[in-house]
Amino acid sequence: MFRKLFSRRSLLLSSLCLLVMAAMTVVLASKGTRADEGTRIEGTFTVAYSGTRNTANDSFCGGTPHDIAVEAHGTGYSTLGPLSFALHKTVEATGPLMHGCLTLTAPNGDSVSAIYDGTEGAPNADNFGFGTVTLTFTGGTGRFRDARGSANMTASFSNFYPASSFFGGTGAPLQGVAFYSVEGTVSLHDADQ
């Protein structure tokens, strides 16, 4: 009788252990899968920018030094939380190409960096231009440390007073406002913690 009872207990205990191990394997495997797939990033940003002739032949993030150097700053909200937006890029004066470096920074100072490659179209009759951008995430600090991935951005922008800028023959910078919408995936170092 004790032998029969011991066998049932052993079988029950062994079965319970196997069930717990199987559950742990599923949880740990799915956690690793989520980290490999990355975190969705979706958001919108509003920025103000200033552009000048690129007389210093500046280039950003290893890109070609195009004709116009642009600096843009703004804020927005994304699935990663609120982020400030800082962009340095160069743009072809007569062509569609843009290249630069983008930094998105959280209120606590954690930041994610990306290479910015895009094309822009000519402004429409109401002075609104449109562009498409690919972001390649290259790293970051804090919770964005070792960030990798990519995202697509669309841009809508308008230049203010182009006739009184260097386009109009004066030395004043070109100024404007842009609205960006971003959607992509970023793998974060601490995404599964």
Distance between the termini: 50 Å
Q: Which structural class best describes the helix and strand composition?
A: alpha+beta
Q: How many separate domains make up the residues?
A: 2
CATH topology of the largest domain: Porin
Topology, number of strands: 8
- Sheet with the most strands: spatial strand order: 1-2-3-4-5-6-7-8
Instruction: Note the beta-strand portion.
Output: over 45%
- The poorly predicted ranges are 16-35
CA-based shape: elongated
Helix content: 10-25%
CATH architecture of the largest domain: Beta Barrel
CATH class of the largest domain: Mainly Beta
Mean pLDDT figure:
84
The major pleated sheet works out as:
8 strands, antiparallel, barrel
Q: How many helices in DSSP terms?
A: 1
* Cα-atom radius of gyration: 25 Å
Q: What is the H/E order?
A: HEEEEEEEE
Short summary of the structure?
Helix content is 19%, strand content 50%.
Can you offer a commentary on this structure?
The relative contact order is 0.18. Strands 1-2-3-4-5-6-7-8 form an 8-stranded antiparallel beta barrel. It has 2 domains: 37 residues; 150 residues, Porin (Beta Barrel). About 10% of the residues have low confidence. With 193 residues, it is of the alpha+beta class.
